[in-house]
Amino acid sequence: MIHIRRKGIALIPFYLLFFITIHAQSDSIPDSGEQIANARQYLLVALQADDPAEVSLWRDSLLIYEDSARAGLVWDERWLMYYWEGSYGNMFDEVSRFDRAERQRQANMVKPPQDGLFEWLDSVLYAQRYDLYERIGRGFLTEEEKQFALIQLEYLLRLNQQDEEEWNKRLDNFIRLHPESRFKTYVTDNLYLGTWPRVKYKVRKDRGFTIDLLLSSGRWRGEMETTLRSPYGFDLGLAYWMNRWNMGLRCTFGWQKLSKPVYQEGFEWPRGDQSILLLPALEFGYDVINGRKLRLFPVATAGIGILKPPGSDEESDNPQPDYYSNFFFAKGYLGVALNADIKLLYFDSYDLKDNTENSHLDIRIRVGYNWLNWDNDNPALGGNMFYFAVGVNLFGHTLQ
User: Fold this and answer.
1) Cβ(249)–Cβ(282) below 8 Å
2) Which listed CATH number (2.60.40.150, 1.25.40.10, 2.40.160.20, 1.10.760.10) goes with 206-399?
């Protein structure tokens, strides 16, 4: 005894109508447009009757009827139908090949008639979205596939448009979690909203820039320990970082008073006068440690050490005498320093645990020693300088 499903019985009149229509047109075969229109009607009836077997039959028929010029199903209709059927593998396969060229190719095809198929799928899946969330979570899918299936469903139902920034950050997080995902091209080419930076640029995680501003204090060694008081000032540094190597520019600005007079070419720079210290330099170093919380790197420096009186102000009541120009000392110097960056803040809340490749704000501690050469011009300025500095450092990756 043959058992016929009720849903199948309900569809019999439509099948008869379809075959009668085909045989009645004995003089001509329907063109692809008519075949597509008819098949879409039967597909809609099968969907409304909740008959997965018939849905699969008519969906496959539409794939046969369409050609390079005419579409049987638009891509969003087809993918919504995969959610209705639970055929996630078919959707994953199509999405992985759906790049910009494929999207443009489908956009150039003649669209099927407006027959209510998309509207029915859209409204039914929107009403059932919470059941779909649960079904995807329980499905035999990898974690990557589950996350993408949820993202794709919300995109197809236009639920992503409620909060543009939050949606784009969610896509960022998916790409960070799955950098080699087969869906990455589809996500970056199609799903971002607005002009989100990661659509336009690619972060170079092996290269970056740092800028720091430090308060510094020093101690003199040699003859200068009795000539100058301890220097105080600040350091400003800019560096380029590439695969742990650091190449940068730095300048130290310091101020200190003379502990005793300095004589030069018969002129006196009196005790208690202010002096200015400038140490512009190039530096080169390497990250010995670069972890989630700490970055430690030594550097070697080479630059020009400048010691001089403050500049004259023409409007001042006590302008500097002209002979102060004799007390301008500038000589090349070498130095070494050890930098420690304590990483305080990562800028994106979607950063991953133990990820050391994102932009961050640090507390920088710097300890160094400079070998100076002013004694070649004046014996009272013989000696070197030890210094300590602390401040903030900002690290950011380059974009391409």
Assistant:
1) yes
2) 2.40.160.20
